[in-house]
Amino acid sequence: MALWGGRFSQAADTRFKQFNDSLPFDYRLAEQDVLGSISWSRALVKVGVLTAEEQRKLEAAMQDLLAQVQADPEQILQSDAEDIHSWVESQLIARVGDLGKKLHTGRSRNDQVATDLKLWCKTQGAQLLLAIHGLQRQLVAVADAHQGTVLPGYTHLQRAQPVTFAHWALAYVEMLERDYSRLQDALARLNLSPLGCGALAGTAYAIDREALALDMGFAGATRNSLDTVADRDHVVELMNCASLSMIHLSRFAEDLIFYNTGEAGFVELSDKVTSGSSLMPQKKNPDALELIRGKVGRVVGAQMGMMMTLKALPLAYNKDMQEDKEGLFDALDTWHDCLDMASLVLDDIKVNQARTLAAAQGGYANATELADYLVAKGIPFREAHHIVGEAVVYAIQVAKPLEDLSLAELQQFSSVMAEDVYPVLSLESTLGKRVAKGGVAPDQIAAALAEAQSRLAARQL
Ligand code: ARG
């Protein structure tokens, strides 16, 4: 039975019912709906709507229902109830009869759905924080194992200056750190309870909304009923957290897809996260990473969709807002899956240190060092830059790295070149000179690693 039958004399068209029902997706709010209802029943005792005895009976039935939905949430899908709120109410009526019909006193589905969804966001948000943390730990472990692994660093996908594999991994730890704190901020902001705002104007019972909020685990109650039932900022914010983090994950995926190519050969991905070709027997494709890279599209798309749904919606609740759930669920599920999958990829990744070293040595990545050397000998940087450019052209012609050119060859470009140029051209020297905070000097990387390790260890999970 629908919750609102009294005013209607005709049944809904089955096609409209199907179009209107949200149970096929909002069944995922079952736990939150029951928990919110338990708190609501307690609040109703304080305003004299329920006796303590009635509340005890109702709460027992709701605890029973909670256990049932926790054990098998999909069972809800068998019902043809309109939404999860109707389903919970009908289940209570089936268990405790007319008493179940008292629970909705003073409440609207508008404040109820807002409450359920925020409770769901809190639970899901906590899971996502854990998943981000888990991936950060994996990256730190990779960094620890590869402090000395030289990797060519790129700009414009041209070999630019050498870095280390540790430095690469720690770059993603930083991106995820921002994702973590962005999500924490969003979760803190949404931590106010809508319940007791009624349909839009507030409830006509003198509910202590602050106490009710605390009972449900919120930090407090929202301030304006009209805003509260119309507000889905938190949905957009969480989707934005997901979008930006997915953009980070797509860059992580793309880096590794490139490192894994036959041409680069810097890493080898495990059989556990790759797949073969039905036609070409030699292939081992980086599907896990490609899917991470690809799924950013649907997450960003869901955020855009939600923002368009909310644009110019008049206050307060409108049925348009029922469109909030599928996109949010999908965006957060996808983000969680991708964080997990990225961890799995790192689990068994093999880094080919000989290949990364050869590539770092081969790309004239020490050309800046040679320019700095000339500067130290008194040549203005712009001139030094030009001289080294010519030397690189020559080195490419004779197919040698700069450090393999003889002194006589180097002196064709500048007479200030001397024997002391060779140590400057070594990878060790190139890396070792980046001593300022955030650079690739071994001491800096060791410090960055130690700092990341202690930051993660100190985090309250
Ligand atoms: N299924 C609805 C939603 O998800 C619940 C709120 C319905 N409120 C209403 N006034 N019809 O938004």
What does this structure look like?
- This protein is mainly α and 461 residues long.
- The protein is 61% helix and 5% strand.
- The protein has 19 helices and six strands.
- The chain has helices at residues 14-20, 23-26, 30-46, 52-71, 84-96, 109-145, 165-189, 209-215, 225-230, 233-259, 287-310, 324-347, 353-362, 367-376, 381-397, 407-411, 421-425, 427-432, 442-458; strands spanning 150-155, 158-164, 192-193, 220-221, 267-268, 350-351.
- Strand 3, helix 8 and strand 4 form a beta-alpha-beta unit.
- The radius of gyration is 30 Å and the shape is elongated.
- The mean pLDDT is 96.
- Arginine (ARG) is lined by residues 22, 26, 83, 109-110, 113, 317, 321-322.
- Its EC number is 4.3.2.1.
- InterPro entries: Arg_succ_lyase_C, Argininosuccinate_lyase, Fumarase/histidase_N, Fumarate_lyase_CS, Fumarate_lyase_fam, Fumarate_lyase_N, L-Aspartase-like.
Q: Which properties best describe this structure?
A:
461 residues, mainly alpha, two-stranded antiparallel sheet, two-stranded parallel sheet, 6 strands, binds arginine
Mean pLDDT across residues: 96
Ends apart, CA distance between termini: 43 Å
Estimate what percentage of residues fall within beta strands.
under 5%
Oligomer: single chain
**Poorly predicted tracts of residues:** none
The succession of helices and strands, N to C, reads HHHHHHEEHEHEHHEHHEHHHHHHH
